[in-house]
Write a structure and sequence with these properties.
Structural class: alpha/beta
Helix content: 25-40%
Radius of gyration: 23 Å
Distance between the termini: 46 Å
């Protein structure tokens, strides 16, 4: 028996019903001017077209979403979203399961990651916050930068740099901020400015309690309006009652294997991967169905990334 390729559990009609349920949950509105004074104006294939009485522009149900201008069916899109962002499969494994070319699947996954980055939580953390840093290997994978960097191409891949890693050494630092029983923030440190201290001030509310290790850039955080507690790792201290950064270290141990599934990333795209992991980690207590619905809602958001 020859099964269709790919073998989908949802029909296109059912996918369109889910799409409309999530897109127009609060009623139909114009994605251009956000006016609710709209009327029906024919069809575009299986999708309803509308005409906005306020701005005079016409649009269809896919306008402003990640599915806009895509010829790929909703069933394929939903399958890719479920495999890559709910089951957390790699892009190559997702392409194989969805019977897509790797480049096509990568563009689909990248489009969803762009929306996740654009809609990532911007609220500042508060309460008890753990702050720590870790390093990942990320160079210029996928781009022909050789000859423009002032060095020959690598023969044996990325080797660990001498001393602490940095963005220029192709081992970027990632600042890990975790609010206990709350959300997560992962920030890629690209240069000297903004540094660790400035990033903490931008992402953590004043009068919060911050736990860090004895790394020098964390010093004098109390002068910025924070209650700062330190665990001295250099002296073998890793916990002092509730003062520890064990959650941050556990998150770093989860992020590195998740990133390794992508077999190396370009450091200029690293912010997309950190935002994606951050969103998936914040949804860790949800069921797979709720994770899928949340991800599709992000794809339907009108926050078009630049």
């Amino acid at each position: 028996m020859d099964l269709p390729k790919p073998y989908l559990l949802l029909t296109e009609k059912e996918c369109l019903r889910i799409f409309r349920l999530l897109r127009w949950r609060d009623g139909v509105y114009c994605p251009i001017c956000e006016s609710r004074s709209v009327k029906r104006n024919g069809h575009y294939k299986a999708y309803q077209r509308y005409l906005c009485r306020t701005c005079g522009r016409s649009f269809n149900e896919k306008t402003g979403t990640v599915f806009h201008y895509s010829r790929i069916s909703l069933g394929i899109w939903f399958l890719v979203i479920h495999l890559a962002f709910v089951l957390e499969k790699s892009t190559r494994a997702t392409a194989k399961e969805a019977c897509l070319a790797y480049r096509v699947c990568y563009r689909m996954v990248r489009s969803v990651m762009d929306r996740i980055y654009a809609s990532a939580m911007k609220a500042r953390l508060q309460g008890v916050v753990e702050a720590d840093e870790f390093y990942v290997n990320a160079g210029f994978k996928g781009k022909n930068y050789h000859g423009k960097l002032g060095r020959p191409s690598r023969i044996r891949g990325l080797k660990p740099p001498r001393g602490r890693g940095s963005y220029s050494k192709d081992e970027p630092m990632i600042l890990n901020l975790y609010q206990r029983d709350g959300p997560l923030r992962l920030k890629v440190v690209e240069g000297v400015e903004p540094g660790l201290k400035q990033l903490i001030c931008l992402n953590v509310e004043e009068d919060s309690t911050i736990y860090t290790d004895d790394y020098m850039p964390y010093r004098r955080l109390d002068e910025e309006g924070y209650r700062h507690e330190v665990v001295n790792h250099s002296q073998g201290e890793y916990a002092r009652g509730d003062v520890h950064i064990n959650h941050d270290e556990a998150i770093a141990s989860l992020f590195k294997p998740w990133l390794a599934k992508h077999r190396g990333v370009n450091k200029r795209n690293l912010h997309l991967y950190t935002a994606t992991f951050q969103t998936m980690y914040d949804m860790r207590n949800l069921s797979n169905r709720d994770k899928f619905w949340k991800t599709v809602e992000i794809c339907l958001s009108n926050n078009i990334p630049h």
